[in-house]
Amino acid sequence: MYICTTMIVCIAEKPSVAKEIADVLGATTRHDGYYEGNGYQVTWTFGHLCTLKEPHDYTPNWKNWSLGSLPMIPPRFGIKLIDDKGIEKQFKIIESLFHNAQGIVNCGDAGQEGELIQRWVMQKAGVTCPVRRLWISSLTEESIREGFAHLQDQQDFKSLYEAGLCRAIGDWLLGMNATRLYTIKYRNPNSRQVLSIGRVQTPTLALVVNRQDEIDNFKPEQYWELKTTYRDTPFSSTKGKFSRMDEGQALLDSISALPFTVKSVTRKEGKDYAPRLFDLTSLQVECNRKYAMSADDTLKTIQSLYEKKITTYPRVDTQFLSDDIYPKCPKILENLKDYSQFTAPLAGTKLSKTKRVFDNSKVTDHHAIIPTGVQPSALSEYERRVFDLVARRFIAAFYPDCKYAATTVLGQAGEVEFKANGREILVPGWRVLFEKDKADDKADDDERVLPAFTVGEQGPHKPELQEKWTQPPKPYTEATLLRAMETAGKLVSDDELRDAMKENGIGRPSTRAAIIETLYKRGYMRKEKKNIIPTPTGRSLVGIIHEELLKSAELTGIWEKRLREIERGKYSPAQFIDELKQMVGGIVHQVLSDNSSRLLQ
Q1: What does the pLDDT read at residue 5?
Q2: Is 339 considered catalytic here?
Q3: Bridge partners, 290 (sequence order)
Q4: How far is the C-alpha of 121 from the C-alpha of 80, rounded, in Å?
Q5: 438 and 431 Cβ atoms separated by less than 8 Å
Q6: Residue 69 and residue 181: Cα distance in Å, rounded?
Q7: What is the DSSP string of 566-590?
Q8: pLDDT 10s digits, 19-38
Q9: Other CB atoms within 10 A of residue 221 CB
Q10: How far lies 171's CA from each of 96, 337, 564, 568, in Å?
């Protein structure tokens, strides 16, 4: 425990978190805006108390929107208090505590945004005393005590702050300038609508608009597939699709009177690994897929579970645990009382430890989302559902692999070869935790168990030519849009490849839900059941943007990678800001040079 005889001020990001920390530290006396006791004062922010200054705070000339004032690039960015009486009152309390403090402990959320929130408050208050950092992944008493026993120097998190600052400045530079630029240049003269442009928001909208364009412009093409049924088992021709009916019909006619002969039966045993633990995005994807929960609802729910000490820190982008978590896992499993039917087989055994779960190289600031071992109680329906997903994934990580046998049967009728695939679960392993899911999901043809076939057997069959049509791409759902944001618009299903592409994803896991909600609120897209559909305004906005830098998910992903490199101290913050200033200047020049008469419809 970090003990000091002089007064230490701890500042958390929310009153509820401050209360948890104060209870552990023994700061039990409540004052207006803080707790006190045992040599500590514990206070809090309400999320952001400060923000970057607005254009008119730098110069009065920037108050009025005009093309002549663009680009607006302050010589030095500054911060100010958010204009709110409650915030102003709390800041004065914090400022007074800071000025009398012998030391400060930054207890902000352990991430980029949390670092930015607290540092801005300290800057605004003019802090000069030493500052240390509390860095924890859960709010249990054990975790808080352990964190205070290993407080770190604030300076160790400088690059994390710089990344957050560069993100905020980048969003300001692009958002303020591009929004004014496009609104003045392309807004319909009879409208007062603001054309909102954002560094992450606009490429995300472009993904949705481009997908809808693909759907609207899709021209279905007819094709045929030759199938046959032998011993109540469907087989498909290995010749694939026929673009002309007469080609398929000729083959059908040639085999109708001929017997079906089994040519080979191949059986291969394999393993399915347990699904990975959750990061925030994969949890949002699963909640949307399974329960139609929005990304924002999932984030709020898992944040609530974190603040109730039931799950670990949620705003993470890794699906791995660090080695130091392994010794704590038996106790966590033991405390999952509601899942005793699944944890009982693991009790008293040496838990498996694989690189698919424990990998220090894949964990930076935080590990995957897991239960803390605190017994949940009085949960809302959303909380119950989300916790259930997290708990089952965690337990499954220690279960045996699922073993299966994959069977491929090749048969022939005349000169035409047919194939059928089947799959039989030999040892369910971790799948026992998800039996209900399996029953809910529609079984895939390849998941069926095939009858026992013998090479050389023959018999009658029922061939048919099936008419089919190519299908358009599916509209985005929040689940698939989150995946597209994570991989900068690329369609990726492989876990390993997706991991590699996260570096270039657009937005951060913690902000993607807010971006999607913003696009709804601004009327640029809407939901039809689970599908996301761009509105006419959203489509028109993307249509008038000719500058690829503003709407390309790939290019925005490159900037995101730069921000991650800044966080790791591998890229210069000043260079990033210079690049953004040049980019904004180039966009302003391009738009001002546009002599077309295009307007937002």
Answers
A1: 42
A2: no
A3: none
A4: 9
A5: yes
A6: 10
A7: HHTT-S-HHHHHHHHHHHHHHHHHH
A8: 999 999 999 999 999 999 99
A9: 10
A10: 32, 46, 15, 20
